[in-house]
Structures are given as C-alpha cells and as structure tokens.
Amino acid sequence: MKLLNEIEILKRKLTLIAARHGDLTHSCVVRVSQLLDKKLNEYERVRRRSGEGA
C-alpha cells in the first residue's frame, strides 16, 4: 500500500509542477517524472513477484 500511495503522490505532484511550469521538459517536471517511472517499475516488479508465488 505504501508504494501505491507514493505513486499517487508523485502523480499529483507531477500534474501540479507541469501546470506551474507549463513545460513538460522543465528539469523539475523531468525529475518527478523519472521518480514516478521508477516507482511504477518497482510496483510492476512487486506485482509480478506476488503473481508468481500464487
């Protein structure tokens, strides 16, 4: 659950920062996007691992 909460927080943060800067290539937007991507990949690995054990 903690991982899903982190993903939701990063999604909201990304939306706010992108709207504030108005540029998807701004360094802040790119940084948060990379963090979100990392968390999504981590979530996918956890999900696959738990699916294999079932």
From TrEMBL:
Gene3D superfamilies named among the record's database cross-references? Helix-loop-helix DNA-binding domain
InterPro entries given in the database record: HLH_DNA-bd_sf, Spo0E-like, Spo0E-like_sf
**Coiled-coil segments, which residues?**
none
Which Pfam family is one of this chain's hits? SpoOE-like
Q: For this UniProt entry, which residues form the secretion signal?
A: none
What protein is this chain from? Aspartyl-phosphate phosphatase Spo0E family protein
**Higher taxonomy:** Bacteria, Bacillati, Bacillota, Bacilli, Bacillales
